[in-house]
Amino acid sequence: MEGVILVVDDDHKTVDLVSLYLTRDGYTVLPAYDGEQALLAARRLKPDLIILDLMLPGLDGTAVCQTLKGESQTPIIMLTARRTDDDKLLGLEVGADDYVTKPFNARELLARVHAVLRRMGPARIPP
Hints:
This protein has helices at 12-24, 35-45, 61-71, 85-93, 106-120; strands spanning 4-8, 28-32, 49-52, 76-80, 98-101. By secondary structure, it is α/β, with parallel strands linked by helices. Helix 2 (35-45) packs parallel to helix 3 (61-71).
């Protein structure tokens, strides 16, 4: 699989919007709507990158990020409405590779996706 991104958010509209931008940019998008789904999908499908909300039902994004970072080096971008400095620091401290706040600019999110994948090496950016 090439250019596969797991998008995790309990807000279906956010997942749909992010998916639209990513698919237009050539990525394959896998949706998940809670922490447990995110863990299962990440383990089974091994995406190239995960876009993860902090506020999820069940396991929150912090727990999901910590768990996944303990199992693999898959890059994670937090995409969340939590915007305080403490929230950002927590997200980065638990293993997020980048942190984007909602509302977000689609071009900026895509640029950050490209940058994180570029830093990870073997993952390829679609043309």
